[in-house]
Predict the structure.
Amino acid sequence: MRNLLIFITKYNAFFLFLIFEIASFVIYVKYNSFQKASVINSTNQITGNLYARTDELKGYLSLREVNDQLARENALLRNQLKSSKYIDTVAHKTVVDTIYKQQYEYIAAKVINKSINKRNNYLTIDRGSREGIQKGMGVITANGVVGKIAFVGEHLSIVQSLLHKDSRVSGMLAYNKEIGYIQWGDDMNPRKALLVDVSNNAQPKIGEPVVTSDLSLFPAGIPLGKVSKLKAKGAGFFLNLEVALAVDFSKLEYVDVVVNKFANEQAGLGAQEKKGDE
């Protein structure tokens, strides 16, 4: 306290000058309408700018929460699509009762780690067995196919990306429905893949969409990419087409895990068919 008094006494002239200046400014503004309006206008502009910057900061800080909410809403909307359901039709004499039943459901997830520059690439998502994730489930985004679940933990799961040497997805040309399968090329280009074993009778066009077929673990019609180059595979009866992938894997942030309610049944029938062939 003593030091404070000494400081005030030593610089009393400065403090008196400051007080008089503030008082003069207040009186000047208060009793002059033009200056008063100018000060109020300037103050409002400064306050408005501060509010705008504060609002931008709040918006930025809440961006992740908003994105999470949008991802959940997108998953709910996907669950309502007709492509996520199957038709259960019961015919009795002339009465036909058609009911849409759920075949596919979607679980929104955030990508927390990923790679795109290796021969075998994976993604890590923030959903696991607690949310119903199981090995083998498909993973998509609004743009197209991402891959399938390879490993599942309680809280996290690892996705085998489409950019993986062992990834295979049944795809078809959107216009003429010729079926092949998508695999990643040996050149390791993260934006390109190959649609192989397409019938030589097909007449694909540059730019033709390639989508998932009914033979894949995904709902039919999910984008895989577009034909970017026509390239014959040897001299056989099949074509090998270059496809520009629909998904930019370098920008992945949110995905949807596809829950196919018929997955076990389809896998069981596939195993029986394979055993019968042997």
